[in-house]
């Protein structure tokens, strides 16, 4: 299982590289539409880290999966949405499920009551995944929207996030990922290639 941990703002180049590596079908599924390389880069550059949490799945130091949780406390208090992507080499191994489970805990711990996710109607994996975590699915203009209703945070949910953050830090060090992530992006890409 890859190391699942939060992605730091300094690791934005890795997130961008991950999204650009998605094959055509997965990129289409991730953004529910066609997106050029330039548009993917613009998406990454526009991330507002004050209202976004990114969780990543790192394998051998390379970001292979990510979930992006985005909310707006002023315009959309207590609500957020997420988009998720796992590269084809890691699909079907439970990475998507782990990312969704953990991001829902992160959302809950920030007082978010409702999390939305949008996917294509034919996206069987994502629909299965949403159902597994209690998402209420609805068909909306050929796309599926999933609504996750979250309970308020409690001591256990806060402890769980802290525990998993701590375990991820240790696993990162053990896997050498922490060392790689301190290297400049270009050198990191060369080492990981
Ligand atoms: C959707 C996606 C995130 C799932 O990630 P993943 O790591 O493959 O997910 P998991 O391995 O945890 O499996 C998720 C579910 O799909 C099911 N599944 C796995 N392989 C499958 C297959 N070949 N066919 C059908 N279902 C499959 C699993 O059984 C699981 O369902 P369960 O929870 O009921 O057991 C990944 O396929 C992806 O990145 N797709 C492209 C981007 C995308 O579609 N994003 C969603 C919109 S934002």
Automatic annotation (TrEMBL):
SUPFAM superfamilies: Acyl-CoA N-acyltransferases (Nat) (SSF55729). Pfam families: Acetyltransf_3. InterPro entries: Acyl_CoA_acyltransferase, GNAT_dom. Residues 2-163 form the N-acetyltransferase domain. It comes from Azospirillum endophyticum. This is GNAT family N-acetyltransferase.
């Amino acid at each position: 299982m890859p190391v699942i941990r939060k992605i730091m703002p300094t690791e934005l180049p890795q997130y961008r590289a991950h999204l650009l590596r998605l094959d055509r079908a997965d990129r289409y599924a991730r953004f529910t539409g066609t997106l050029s390389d330039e548009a993917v880069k613009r998406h990454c550059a526009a991330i507002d880290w004050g209202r976004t949490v990114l969780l990543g799945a790192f394998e051998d130091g390379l970001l292979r999966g990510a979930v992006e949780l985005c909310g707006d406390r002023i315009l959309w208090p207590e609500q957020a949405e997420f988009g998720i992507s796992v590269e084809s080499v890691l699909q079907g191994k439970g990475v998507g499920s782990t990312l969704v489970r953990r991001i829902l805990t992160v959302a809950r711990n920030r007082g978010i009551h409702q999390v939305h996710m949008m996917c294509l109607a034919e996206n069987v994996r994502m629909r299965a995944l949403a159902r597994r975590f209690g998402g209420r699915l609805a068909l909306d203009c050929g796309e599926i929207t999933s609504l996750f209703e979250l309970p308020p945070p409690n001591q256990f949910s806060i402890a769980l996030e802290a525990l998993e953050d701590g375990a991820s830090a240790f696993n990162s060090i053990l896997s050498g990922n922490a060392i790689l992530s301190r290297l400049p992006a270009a050198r990191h890409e060369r080492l990981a290639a």
